[in-house]
Design a protein that fits this description.
- The complex is a heterodimer of chains A (206) and B (104).
- Chain A is mainly α and 206 residues long.
- Chain A has a domain at 63-206: Cytochrome c oxidase, subunit III, four-helix bundle (Four Helix Bundle (Hemerythrin (Met), subunit A), Up-down Bundle).
- Chain A has helices spanning 3-9, 25-53, 66-90, 94-124, 138-170, 175-200.
- In chain A, helix 2 (25-53) runs antiparallel to helix 5 (138-170) and helix 4 (94-124) runs antiparallel to helix 5.
- The longest helix of chain A is centred in the C-terminal third of the chain and has 33 residues, at 138-170.
- Chain A is elongated and about 70 Å long.
- Chain B has 104 residues and is mainly α.
- Chain B has 2 domains: 1-63; 66-104, no CATH class.
- Chain B has helices at residues 3-30, 36-58, 66-82, 87-99.
- Chain B is flat.
- Chain B starts with a helix and ends in a 5-residue tail after the last helix.
- At the A-B interface, helix 2, helix 3 and helix 6 of A face helix 1, helix 2, helix 3 and helix 4 of B.
Chain lengths: 206, 104
Amino acid sequence: MSEAHLTVGAHTAPPMEARPFAIPSKKFAMWLFIMSDVMTFAACIAVYSFTRNSTPDWPRPFHGLTNVAVMTLIMLTSSLTMLFAMKSAKLEDKAGAFRWLMLTALGGVIFTVLHVRDWMGMINQGAGLLQNPWGPPAFGASFFVITGFSLLHISVGTLAVIIVALRYKGGRYNADDVEIISIFWQFVGLVWLFIVPVVYLMNLAP
Amino acid sequence: MTTAQGQSTGKYLIVYVCLLAITALQFFLGYQHIAGSQLVVRFFTFAVIESLLVVLFWMNLGSEKPGFIKFIVYFMLFVLVCMNYIWTDSFRLLLFRLTGMGPS
């Protein structure tokens, strides 16, 4: 009989498999999720770019980008406040971490409101998933899918930040959980930095 | 606050300022009436720089183990590069729509 069988026979806990890359499992899972999400966002951006490139009369409905600039500033600032939350959590400053997390969530809420306002402006002009008053209907479909997917991530992420903040304050979550939500939040901010030039700024090109 | 913790705050702030500056530059370039093909290259370059800053310093991938970094980078780059097979068909479609004829 092998040594392994003898150990199990003696009611000892089975040996645990080593963690992949020696990093915490939750963090590894978040990175795997982000890797898969990168594929989805990359596919959305590729489809938008493909359609835009192959359509000669692609519409350019964005005349002023002040709203988008403000949204970008808020997204970047909320990414920074999230980092301060993670740092406070690692220093075991619970009140500070909670405060920074809630500030991050506030940034997410403001971003979501501004994004919905941007959408409403377009919808009121007649744009939709299957229609576009400025030309090819593919514009509406690709625009609302790519920005909607980002908006979904940010609004759900905001909810997740609030839940993590409350559970961290209540003692159910620790600094590692704050770090994991921080990685996700940085990722959604990074995606926005790709969406702005592809969707909005290229709209200004002659 | 220890020196290392103070350094991380400084690092976060420097990256934040860099990201703001690059984004502002992108907006500035957007209003400069540069040809679309040139603008795409510039925006893509800036977006890659921004993503490197965020992934390495804000998502702290730079401080992970080398094996994990290789795992992430190799898989991501492979898929993202493979995704670019679409462009030939995109230009073929554009040519077809502009001239009414596809390539023979």
